[in-house]
Design goal:
The strands form four sheets. This protein has a five-stranded antiparallel β-sheet with strand order 1-2-9-10-11. It is globular. It contains eight helices and eleven strands. By secondary structure, the protein is of the alpha+beta class. 41% of the residues lie in helices and 18% in strands. Helix 2 runs antiparallel to helix 6 and helix 6 crosses helix 7.
């Protein structure tokens, strides 16, 4: 073999060795990445399991509260934010919110038809928040059973079929307030302004005056302004309302609220949970319905 041939052979051999080294390194990186993915997947599974445990914690707390008192207010244990709770290789955070302290958007429709009184309440809430009153008609059309648009600002199938992509009005109660993103006029800014004060609960519900913010209280009755509603909240912060009559007698002169539309207790609560385990994180929301007997049931849950 000539010197030139030997040189070419050496270069080829070095190239083969280099390629083998690169392949081995790539394989090691691939195995390392695969192992890390498996580890993160395992940790995420654990995190979701802890979310389930957190939901059970909320259910147990609400069940205990039901046996302790017939009144729900913000001074009770369920209303306190859970401090970081250590779990194996991580922590759990959580808190519970009374959903009957918010305005139930499904109250806009009763037996498939628009409830005029509740529609007026929602319009007052929109006005307090600086939002167009016509949104109440649009949402009522989204929920009611018919296909006839409301006279002011309504929207039915024809309006949504003109969208890209086209779709139909739901013509049923909302399951979750996230559905507002589909309703005409409820853009990101409107939803951000509205979401702290509204909810979507099964059937008609009364407002818990012990947990409702002033904006929701002001929507309950025509003539109850935001300043007066704030005064009512300040009174309950000193001593919660023990029954409906206790609240009604503290209303300003001339302001009337239907006793059927208010309550001092609640059946629906939202548990918000967040878990960190190792490098994995998971969060979730669980809507709970507290029944007269048995543990609170899960209406829906969202984990991610």
């Amino acid at each position: 073999m000539t010197t030139r041939q030997r040189g070419v052979a050496i270069v080829l051999a070095m190239g083969v060795v280099a390629l083998a080294a690169i392949a081995a390194a790539a394989l090691m990186v691939s195995q390392s990445t695969w192992s890390r993915q498996i580890e993160l997947t395992s940790e995420h599974v654990q995190a979701v399991a802890v979310l389930e445990a957190g939901a059970d914690w909320a259910r147990a707390l609400l069940d205990d509260d039901r046996h302790a008192s017939e009144v729900d207010h913000l001074g009770e244990p369920w209303a306190l934010r859970l401090p970081p709770m250590p779990v194996e290789n991580g922590e759990l955070l959580g808190h519970i919110e009374d959903q009957q302290g918010a305005f139930n958007l499904n109250n806009l429709v009763s037996d498939g038809k628009v409830n005029v009184a509740r529609l007026a309440q929602f319009q007052r809430l929109l006005a307090t928040l600086g939002l167009p009153a016509g949104l109440a008609y649009t949402l009522a059309d989204w929920i009611d059973e018919d296909s006839q648009p409301q006279p002011e600002g309504g929207a039915e199938d024809a309006d949504y079929l003109a969208a890209d992509p086209p779709y139909l009005a739901a013509n049923r109660p909302l399951i979750d307030v996230a559905e507002l993103a589909l309703v005409r006029g409820f853009d990101d800014n409107v939803r951000a302004r509205l979401l702290p004060y509204v909810t979507a609960l099964p059937g008609a519900t009364a407002v818990n005056v012990n947990t409702a913010p002033p904006e929701v209280l002001a929507a309950l009755a025509e003539g109850l302004d935001l300043g007066e509603a704030r005064a009512l909240v300040a009174q309950r912060d000193r001593a919660y309302y023990r029954d409906r009559d206790d609240f009604l007698k503290r209303l300003p002169r001339g302001v009337v609220v239907s006793a059927e539309e208010i309550s001092v207790s609640s059946n629906y609560f939202l548990a918000s949970l967040q878990v960190s385990i190792g490098g994995a994180q998971a969060s979730g929301k669980v809507l709970l319905a507290r029944l007269r007997t048995g543990w609170p049931v899960i209406v829906w849950r969202k984990y991610r």
